[in-house]
Amino acid sequence: MTWFNQARYGLFIHWGAYSVAGRGEWVANRELHSKEDYIRDCVVPFTAGRYDPREWARLAKDAGMGYAVLTTRHHDGFCLWDTDTTDFKATALGPKRDLVRDYVAAFRAAGLKVGLYYSVADWFHPDYPGAHRRDWPDRWPDEAARQRFVKFYHAQLEELMTRYGKIDLLWYDGCIPSPTDGTVINTRIKQLQPHILINDRNGDPHDFHSCEQAIKPAAPGHDWEACMTLNENWGYHAGDTNWKTPRQVVRMLLETSCSAGNLLLNVGPKPDGTIPEESVRILRESGDWLRRNREFLENSGRSPFTWNNWGRITTKGDRIYLHVINGTGPRLRVSDIANRVLRAFRLDGSAPVRFDQQGDLVTLHDLPASLPDPICTTFVLEVEGQPATTRAQTSFWIPG
Ligand code: GLC
Question: Which ligand 1 atom sits nearest the alpha carbon of residue 173?
Fold first, then answer.
């Protein structure tokens, strides 16, 4: 899991024919489109005319991310790569181009780890329980249909795992009846790509837990990742302007990092392949903050501290990071610190900070009346030993 825990932050990319509708990635299901209508209205006009994944990779780098995950196919079943299993693919319809190949090449060249999202569900497949289901389908039409479907999707994954060189991560998505014979294909994938990390949405073996639209740390000893949208949709939605602020992005990163987890933050490119300007701005601004304060992030540990009213506390090695979001005036008092504090300083620029320690209460002094960083100002306490607390910590109430 080395690179995964080192990176802590990745880019989720939901892109496909549904981007044309501009009403999210579930449009075919929600609006009861037939496959023919969907091809006419979404797939054919999906030209990807300005698709340049090198731009995407640059943005991911600027944002401070270490990896990315692209939807090679979503529940609509439209494949962004040149598969031999169906003609419902980007090389035959729409872009007339292998979008996955270019993505993999660009992200690898940029030094980013390459992840592929793959939806096992496939609404328009004849053996899938139906394109317009309102609930999670719980049964296959019959065993023969299930076996045909399993053979089909296993063959698709075999292609993805053999045609594009080293793949670092496979991100499964569901909405499919069981059993999907996940163990069979995951075992095969581990042979083909011995270093790959697999999420927990298609059985064992898997390497990390995933949670969605909520930050829910996995139990200690388990690696995990929270995936979150930047507005309220995964796929491009032209009318959704409910963007998170750069500060909210930083807060999410603090939240995942303090429990040794990752944040996979989503963008939904437009049908031409460009990422919405608002997403770019938010990722760049939060990325600027991260550049100034990066040290806390990579390989962050499970912080023994829970909540307070001014921000978040992350830990790593012999350091405690005090991320102040709500300023406390010239003094910041932090209690329950079991370690002797050796040094205190600002993370962005290393300016020393005067402090005193009385038992487990540490006070930082002479802080500026208003915080120098409008997003979050981070102070570091270098301590003796591994960060520890004197009092049992609870999470019975977490402000904000
Ligand atoms: C859900 C949705 C899907 C989205 C995914 C991301 O499973 O069905 O649209 O891609 O979450 O985690």
Answer: 7
CB-ligand 1 contact for 225 (6 Å cutoff):
no
Which ligand 1 atom is at minimum distance from the Cα of 117? 10
Q: Which residues contact 170 (CB under 8 A, 6 or more apart)?
A: 115, 116, 118, 157, 161, 189, 193, 196, 197, 198, 199
Give this prediction's pTM: 0.97
Closest residue CA from atom 4 of ligand 1: 234
Residue 93 neighbours by CB under 8 Å, 6+ apart? 39, 43, 44, 78, 87
pLDDT digits (tens, 9 = 90+) for 149-195: 999 999 999 999 999 999 999 999 989 999 999 999 999 999 999 99
Q: Is the pLDDT of residue 400 over 60?
A: no
Q: H/E element holding 50?
A: none
Same fold, 2-296 and 311-383: no
Q: What distance in angstroms lies between residue 5's CA and the mean position of ligand 1's atoms?
A: 23
Q: Does residue 212's CB lie within 6 angstroms of at least one atom of ligand 1?
A: yes
Residue 397 has pLDDT above 70, yes or no: no
**How far does the centroid of ligand 1 lie from the alpha carbon of residue 322, in Å?**
34
Instruction: Kindly report the backbone phi and psi dihedral angles of residue 369, in degrees, each rounded to the nearest multiple of 5, phi listed first.
Output: -60, -40
- CATH architecture of the domain with residue range 2-296: Alpha-Beta Barrel (3.20)
Burial of 97 (0-12, 13-18, 19+ CB in 10 A): middle
Distance separating alpha carbons of residues 325 and 276, to the nearest angstrom: 27
Q: Is 366 exposed, middle or buried (0-12, 13-18, 19+ CB in 10 A)?
A: exposed
Which homologous superfamily is 311-383 in?
Answer: Golgi alpha-mannosidase II (2.60.40.1180)
* Domain definitions of the chain by residue range: 2-296, 311-383
Question: Tell me: the pLDDT tens digits for 351-376?
Answer: 999 999 999 999 999 999 889 999 99
227 CB within 6 A, ligand 1: yes
Average pLDDT (262-271) is: 98
Which among 70, 228, 234, 267 is the best mutation to test ligand 1's pocket, defined by most ligand atoms within 8 Å of the CB? 234
Question: Residue 296: CB within 6 Å of ligand 1?
Answer: no
168 lines ligand 1 (CB under 6 A): no
- The ligand 1 atom at the shortest distance from the C-alpha of residue 71 is 10
Pocket lining: 200 vs ligand 1, CB cutoff 6 Å = no
